[in-house]
Design goal:
The chain is of the alpha+beta class. The protein has ten helices and twelve strands. The chain is rod-shaped and about 155 Å long. It binds adenosine-5'-triphosphate (ATP) and magnesium ion.
Amino acid sequence: MADAPRWWRRRGLRARLALTSASALTIALVALAWLFGYTVRRSAIATLDASARHSADDVVTLIDANRLPDPILTTGGATTIQVLDRTGRIRAATPGSDRLVPLLDDRDLASARHDRRARFLDGRAYGLPDLLRVVALPARDGQTVVAATSYEQVRDNLATVVRTLVIGTPVLLILLGAAGWLIIGGALRPITELRRGAEEITGTARSRRLPVPEAHDEVHDLAVTLNDMLGRLERAEARQRALVSDTAHELRSPVASIRAQLEVALDHPDRQHWPATAAGVLADTLRLARLADDLLVLARLDERGARPAVREPVDLDALVRSASDRHPAPRVPIELRGGDPVTVAGDATGLTRMLDNLIDNATRHAATGVRVGLEHAGAWAEVSVTDDGPGIPPADRERVFARFTRLDEGRSRDEGGAGLGLAIVRETARAHGGDAYLEDAVPGLRAVVRLPVR
Ligand SMILES: Nc1ncnc2c1ncn2[C@@H]1O[C@H](COP(=O)(O)OP(=O)(O)OP(=O)(O)O)[C@@H](O)[C@H]1O
Ligand SMILES: [Mg+2]
């Protein structure tokens, strides 16, 4: 028995549903058949008893009128009647019935007279049918009228009813079970189709969706949800593909540049100014290294989702004030405007990289100078980096936060990076529970990072 649940678990959904409904149906039908047979038997016996009582009543009336004939003639003749006097002797009886032995002995007679209920009697001893229903009614002067009716007809009828039920119930069960099997199969078909759809999807690169059933039911909702998920996965995959191809694209130019410089140098080794070649190759190598670093930072941000690497107290004011140490000899002067100490919870390395990316952009684009500010308003700290350069048109201010987006593609290669800086800024800010955006500084651009204060 311990194995039954396991056996049960291994059945298919359709088989389990069909078996469950068939079991419930079996119990219900058997109970119904039993109840039907029981009711039919009860009502047949009640009818029989009523007719015996009726015949006995008629005889009681005759006795009361002092007109009792002997033999007693009843209509139909199916009922055997005896009239017993006070001493238990038979005074009168229907023709063909025993005139010496009463149908009920003294004890049965007394209780039958008393409770007036019908009872079964074996009639064989009296030359009557084997099973009888007997009633006894009291009459004048302590006499008793005993009436017996044969139970045979009722028994035959009941046997027919039972036969019909015994054959009919299983046939009905089989029919209903088969119908259930088909209906359950029909109800599960959309799921089968979902599965088939999913099977076809695997491995194909085309846009992939599962078949959505027409009925607005649970399977429909499931298909819609799964399709949404497929859509999200598809977009994520597309992003991933784009990232790989953008990365490959970005890698190509420094690698090609290194290769060209080395090839030229090796073609004419004696006429070559090797320190200059090495410096050129080093610059390209640094670009590659930066690209690799930035990609790694973004990959880590992706991995962690919306959480910083660590949550340690970071003093933003100190971070702003130390910015000039990290930017020695900038192209334009950097003015630092710190304020009161403002502490946020997060990753100091990440936040430093974020601020430096903004300062890099600003010093590269500024005309005369860069201002770095820190403000504390309520639950938020705002770090801003403002320059007086050309700015970014409003239409592009969101777009530049996307990875590998560069607006000044035409500029000299050495100036710009791969276009990952602002993506790192925004994703770092969001991982710390804040956000980053760009504003007009008339002239120039103001980059703002809002972070929740600890
Ligand atoms: N202060 C600014 N003024 C004008 N344009 C800017 C400024 N900051 C960024 N941009 C524009 O936004 C683009 C995206 O900036 P982002 O920092 O993401 O990339 P990048 O600086 O080109 O490369 P990276 O930061 O990876 O070295 C830049 O290419 C530039 O066109
Ligand atoms: Mg940048």
